[in-house]
Amino acid sequence: MREEQCRRSEARTGTLTFFAGVWLIAAPLLLDFQAAQRLFRPYWLALVLAAVIMLVGMLRALAPLDVPWLRTANIWLAAALVAAGFLLRADGSPVVHMNQIVVGAAIALVSLVVAIDAGKWLG
Questions:
Q1: 119: left (phi over 0), alpha (psi -120 to 50) or beta
Q2: pTM listed for this prediction
């Protein structure tokens, strides 16, 4: 029963992470209307990280078995996203960077809570 509950929470977290990645990819267009004119240069790292976070979220949601290292990967990717939001603020919109920091922190926090709850922190 406990294993089934952990698997369900893992799938929910993966789905949430997937949608957060979709939002992170759409956010520069929705929050900074001139992003396309600058060819997304200020956001390229965040977009790549968001795509990888989406992929990891999809794997977490659809994996038939528990894959603990995906939790750790998710946490590190989200931490990199937050760090990029602080370090690469030169050209982009402050609203987009703040969104990136908040969503990245939320992904890391949710993944950490699920990892601690599952009792398998580092796989």
A1: left
A2: 0.81
